[in-house]
């Protein structure tokens, strides 16, 4: 995973945060779908173990390149300076709450929907995440914090003006 972190650090400044998210999420989806297929289709133990291992390693490597670090970086970039600290804390709290939910719901989900169902649900969440990133997450690569703050404040002003009309 360490090489993936190094690659991600370099690519964030070259390709941008949004494009890195949009390009790593499909690999997460494919890895999860391969795990679903591997759970449903009967194959030899060695083949199943190899496919599962490769899928999990790919998932972790691409998660570390995309959805692992980038949301934290975006949180640090998109909030105004006066509220940045509290907003980053709220984002971190949300991350950990979701992590705890996934951790504690996994055994229950395994019993109720099985391994293929769990991986299928995670794949659906990744698809929804890709759509959200595609529609709502702006590219912040190379933008000064002041420009990013202005970008979001202009959007907020337009929404407020539309509500008043």
UniProtKB/TrEMBL annotation:
Membrane-spanning segments: 20-41, 47-74, 86-106, 112-135
InterPro entries, per database record: MFS_dom, MFS_sugar_transport-like, MFS_trans_sf, Myo-inositol_Transporter, Sugar_transporter_CS
Main localization, broad class: membrane
GO terms of molecular function: transmembrane transporter activity
Entry keyword set: Membrane, Transmembrane, Transmembrane helix, Transport
Subcellular location: Membrane
Keyword Transport: yes
Chain ranges of the Major facilitator superfamily (MFS) profile domain: 1-141
Any one of the GO CC terms: membrane
Protein topology in the membrane: Multi-pass membrane protein
Protein family according to the UniProt entry: Belongs to the major facilitator superfamily. Sugar transporter (TC 2.A.1.1) family.
Protein name: Major facilitator superfamily (MFS) profile domain-containing protein
